[in-house]
């Protein structure tokens, strides 16, 4: 770990400008970014449970107290 207890990035990948960091556990497609966002919002009382959320269009139906932005 680096100073400040932050993990150090892995060595750069050829042709990719982003960074990868070491992780624990395994990737599970049913727990991708959309599920993670809804789960965190549910923990704050701002969304319903994330069960079954995989795709982006499934997210808005789970939210509580949000209204679409005006055009």
What's this, in brief?
The protein is mostly helical and 71 residues long.
List keywords for this structure.
71 residues; mainly alpha
Tell me about this structure:
The protein is mainly alpha-helical. It has 1 helix and no strands. The longest helix has 11 residues, at 33-43. It is elongated. The mean pLDDT is 89.
Order of H and E elements: H
Q: Beta fraction of the residues?
A: under 5%
Radius of gyration: 17 Å
Q: Measure the end-to-end span.
A: 45 Å
Counting DSSP E segments of at least 2 residues, the number of strands comes to: 0
Largest sheet: none
Helix content: 10-25%
The coarse overall form would be elongated
Q: What's the tally of helices? A: 1
The low-pLDDT segments are none
> Mean of the pLDDT scores?
89
Query: Helices and strands: which structural class?
Result: mainly alpha
